[in-house]
UniProtKB/TrEMBL annotation:
Stated name of the protein: 3-dehydroquinate synthase
One CC-aspect GO term: cytoplasm
InterPro entries membership: Dehydroquinate_synthase, DHQ_synth_AroB, DHQ_synth_fam, DHQS/DOIS_N, DHQS_C
Subcellular location: Cytoplasm
Organism: Microbulbifer donghaiensis
A GO molecular-function descriptor: 3-dehydroquinate synthase activity
Pathway linked to the protein: Metabolic intermediate biosynthesis; chorismate biosynthesis; chorismate from D-erythrose 4-phosphate and phosphoenolpyruvate: step 2/7
Record EC number: 4.2.3.4
Length: 361
């Protein structure tokens, strides 16, 4: 077991990475200030890991749990309202701590509920998917989707601790695992060339969930993310690079219907689109795109738009991206391997060309 820190002054917190962390009260107690807790999880994760966690919480005065339906389609205000209903019915006060036990959807909604409930209560992230361990549990982006756009309602709100229990990855379905690998590859592309090269040499071990390879990938991803977040907590500048591939990916998720493609799958295809656009702008060569495709192929991730998706559908959905400033679409593109930048001067025709290269019609 080891710890990394997300350095944010008084909002700093540790990311604890290890195996079999869930059942040990000592991993949680230092981060819970009151005597009340509410565990938010979903119907898939609860039978697997809730009993262990509840055993670790046995000494608290009030321990409630809520099991939400599983899937991105349920990341809505209505679902968050169910958390508020329980907290109020069971008279949780401002000293309560919400504990997110699950993947990114559970973590994002729990964090948002914690940010809003009685104007803010503590929360703890216990991510049980690869994507949540390497990305969504770190950095304090919380919120829900709207039919018109992904993550359109939310808040920046940091957890007290992130407990990444690698043992929970042993039960993760293959498709979910691959989706997490998309975000791992993203770090290599945007800020860590050495990690990208390591992934090229170790992708088979990673996909086989070799414990050492997996621990290294989670640790390195969290370090990369923590460094970016520490520099720019509320995404006023550099943090936007973490959105590489996401403007395209979010369009896929919104147009296909949330949950049809997993978030990481949409991001994988979106990263190829963003790389293609970077190439069309002359920043990178076709060789790098081939290398990205080889990695995505090995990770069993999509590299093209969903069948039949129109360039117009992409552009319409991308028009509600949160990075738009003064009506200008800002895209995260590559300057080189391991070096991303935000650009706001890409001609629409070039975006359409990149989309068509990636299978949009
Ligand atoms: O933490 C960030 O910042 C990110 O952008 C990480 C993304 O991988 C993650 O999917 C995030 O939830 C996207 O946020 P959004 O602001 O683009 O909705």
């Amino acid at each position: 077991m080891h710890c990394l820190n997300v350095e944010l002054g008084e909002r700093s917190y540790p990311i604890v990475i290890g195996s079999q962390l869930l059942g040990d009260p000592q991993n949680l107690l230092p981060y819970i200030r009151g005597r009340q807790v509410c565990v938010v999880t979903n119907e898939t994760v609860a039978p697997l890991y809730l009993p262990q966690l509840l055993a670790a919480l046995a000494d608290f005065d009030k321990v409630d749990t809520i099991e939400l339906p599983d899937g991105e389609a349920f990341k809505t205000l209505d679902t968050v309202n169910r958390i508020f209903d329980l907290l109020l019915e069971r008279r949780h006060n401002r000293s309560t701590t919400l504990i997110a036990l699950g993947g990114g959807v559970v973590g994002d909604m729990t964090g948002f509920a914690a940010a809003c409930y009685q104007r803010g209560v503590d929360f703890v992230q216990i991510p049980t998917t690869l994507l949540a361990q390497v990305d969504s549990s770190v950095g304090g982006k919380t919120g829900v989707n709207h039919p018109l756009g992904k993550n359109m309602i939310g808040a920046f709100y940091q957890p007290r601790v992130v407990l990444a229990d690698m043992a929970t990855l042993t039960t993760l379905p293959e498709r979910e695992f691959s989706a997490g690998v998309a975000e791992v590859i993203k770090y290599g592309l945007i800020c860590d060339e050495t990690f990208f090269c390591w992934l090229e040499g170790n992708i088979s071990r990673l996909m086989a969930r070799d414990p050492q390879a997996l621990a290294y990938a989670v640790d390195r991803s969290c370090r990369d993310k923590a460094a970016v977040v520490a520099e720019d907590e509320r995404e006023s500048g550099r943090r936007a690079i973490l959105n590489f591939g996401h403007t395209f990916g979010h369009a896929i998720e919104a147009v296909q219907g949330y949950g049809a493609w997993l978030h990481g799958e949409a991001v994988a295809a979106g990263m190829v689109m963003a790389a293609e656009l970077s190439r069309l702008r002359g920043a990178i060569d076709a060789g790098l795109i081939d290398r990205i495709r080889v990695l995505l192929e090995a990770a069993r991730l999509p590299q093209a738009a969903p069948a039949g998706m129109l360039t117009g559908e992409f552009l319409d959905a991308m028009a509600v991206d949160k990075k738009i400033v003064d009506g200008r679409l800002r895209l995260v593109l590559l300057r080189a391997l391991g070096d991303a930048q935000v650009v706001d001067d890409t001609p629409k025709a070039l975006i359409e060309q990149a989309l068509r290269h990636c299978g949009a019609v």
